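Revision sheet: structure tokens.
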Amino acid sequence: MYSQIRNIQWIVLFLVCPYTIAWAETVNITVSGISFEPKVIAIQPGDTVSWTGMTGHSTTLVSKLSPNGALEWDSRIGSDFENTFNEEGVYIYKCKPHSNLGMAGAIIVGNPTNIDMLREHGQNHNFKEIINQAIEYAEKYQDSDL
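Predicted:
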């Protein structure tokens, strides 16, 4: 009897409050040649990004362009890696061995809090193309109210 009541309570909770529980997601980024795929992603705080297929590659935060309070990361070359993002903003990252070839990507976490800084300082950076893609994506993502 008690277990039936407990089950009914859980059902009521999920029916009455369907949006109160949020599950963190894991998004996968792979390497294709000397490019991260996808190049730009949007996630929510608490989500995890997993980089796979990293033979000969790494992922490193470009700290000069990161949001305030962002935790830096620097994976080992050749090792798959994952990172959980808790601070909102746009994160630009690179592959150390191939950064001179423009191998970089962007992760937009929640509200792109540092987008104005990217507009101002990103235009004189080696990763100008990916920064501009991230800004464009962030503006669309923000306007869509996702």
